[in-house]
């Protein structure tokens, strides 16, 4: 089901500077076909881009901003799988399985997305080996990274889990030791499987040990070596 927002834009895929690695492999004719079969939309922070359980009839490409991928467990307890950064596709595993969204996607910042008609995207998958390779590589990299992160959550104590989360934001999402946390303490707890109080206490502990500098959601990792060591020993 295609979500609607307040702003709709149409532009040209051939001149777009936010192309995915897969789209960069397309010919000019294919880019023209893509331009005729997509819809660009903007969402504000907190808006739902794709709801869990809805029919997936479009492929969604995240051009800019950050998105939360999450679901609901027993008793509607939220769990967060990952934060998705720009130049990624949302919900591909649902598109090519049973065509239902298995997770919800919410804008953590103001975002721009492109809804691509599924038949056109499927055509590129079937007929363009380089395009297919880039899409498969993206899905596999996400799967492997999330698998190792989930395994670590079950094997580590709270200080290791929080260290892992901070390193995830630093290295995977922002590629910087200085960043603004895109999730609240409660959401981080949902992501690593613990309580909000435990997350807050451990982050404050890292600050007291001069591993972090904190100002609200602004984080500066002062001692990356120690934080990585904490993550390793868990």
Quick summary of this structure?
The chain is elongated, with a radius of gyration of 19 Å.
Write a concise keyword list for the protein shown above.
four-stranded antiparallel β-sheet, five-stranded antiparallel β-sheet, 234 residues, alpha+beta, elongated, 41% helix
Indicate the topology.
Blueprint: E1 7-9, H1 28-35, E2 38-43, E3 48-50, E4 58-64, E5 67-72, E6 78-84, E7 88-90, H2 92-95, E8 104-107, E9 111-117, H3 118-127, H4 129-155, H5 158-174, E10 178-180, H6 185-192, H7 196-208, E11 212-215, E12 218-221, H8 224-233
Antiparallel strand pairs: 1-2, 2-9, 3-8, 4-7, 4-9, 5-6, 5-8, 10-12, 11-12
Main sheet: which strands, in order across?
A: 1-2-9-4-7
DSSP helix count?
8
Instruction: Write down the overall geometry.
Output: elongated
- Biggest β-sheet strands, sense, barrel: 5 strands, antiparallel
Tell me, rounded to a whole number, the average pLDDT.
Answer: 88
User: Alpha-carbon distance between the termini?
Assistant: 42 Å
Low-confidence stretches: none
CA radius of gyration: 19 Å
Roughly how much helix do the residues carry, as a percent range? Answer: 40-55%
Order of helices and strands: EHEEEEEEHEEHHHEHHEEH
DSSP strand count: 12
Helix-strand makeup class: alpha+beta
Report strand %. Answer: 15-25%
